[in-house]
Amino acid sequence: MNDQASTLRSMVSQRDAGTHNNMRVIAVGSGKGGVGKTSFVVNLAIALSELNYRVIVLDGDLGLANVDVVFGMTAKYSIRHLLSGEKRIEDILCPVKRGIKVLPGASGMFELANLDRGQLKNVLVNLGRLEKMADVLLIDTGAGLGHTVLNFLCASDEVIVITTPEPPAMADAYGLLKSLKGQQEQLNLKIVINRIHHESEAEICFEKLEHAAKKFLGLRVNLLGWIYDDPLMGKSIMEQYPLGLANPESLAYKYIQWIAGNVTGMDQRPPSSSGGIRKLIFSILKN
Ligand SMILES: Nc1ncnc2c1ncn2[C@@H]1O[C@H](COP(=O)(O)OP(=O)(O)OP(=O)(O)O)[C@@H](O)[C@H]1O
Predict the structure, then answer these.
(1) How close is the Cα of 240 to the center of ligand 1, in Å?
(2) Containing domain of residue 213, as a range?
(3) Atom of ligand 1 at shortest range from CA of 231
(4) What is the C-alpha to C-alpha distance for residues 48 and 285, in angstroms, rounded to an integer?
(5) Using CA of residue 242, residue 69, residue 105, residue 174, what is the dihedral sign?
(6) Core-most of 74, 136, 144, 173, by most CB within 10 Å?
């Protein structure tokens, strides 16, 4: 494991050894862009806040940041100000909705997408100062397999890989798993299948990914859940008002709420009562 990743990991273990709060660090990656990673992170944050979790979202897509935009905000300061020494990490935290805070990346800055070792270490060390402010730090990593993305993923307690059922997205999700395997042996990997039309799609996709990860990489992955394709998601992005706030009863958000419950360890059934996968997922989650 490289330096940056080990810095955060040692912060994580120091934190776990301490008596203060345990802030869980959960990074979400995808491989392919445009599969719904940011939409998922934003709505997962809202669903976790409904469960009384204090959430900070780090926009780890440092070059093409947009979490604040999806929340309908324009952040005044970003990680760029932290790196330049102009602001402290507490100063750049942007309160959005429901007590959620965002650590904004900076859009259109190539150099931020490719932080050098010292800069990334600076960000990671600063993150440790947020320990007592949140129960969960959700990291929305960038698409692709850049070193900043891999460092964030490897340094986190848990990694959620989100994909759609489309073959290119699945291939890139596998590519991401492969890159992660090369960097770090011990990984807590969970899969979310987004934009499905039938539960059987999620079942088939997960089984393919699970099989390939086990056979070719020797990796164990777990299914965290799936989300239906829902036109209201696109509408909420256009309106810059997150789905969980605009349409909490929507199909996609109901499944994100279910996933949030799975993240917190709640033993609950998927919202829909149809389909044979329900039994499968229930038994996977119980193991
Ligand atoms: N469950 C869903 N149903 C319908 N549309 C969705 C769903 N999830 C995401 N989308 C749509 O997919 C598009 C891409 O979503 P988003 O920006 O969240 O992807 P991303 O993976 O973060 O992309 P990037 O890697 O480029 O940042 C958006 O238009 C969004 O509305």
Answers:
(1) 13
(2) 3-286
(3) 4
(4) 18
(5) positive
(6) 173
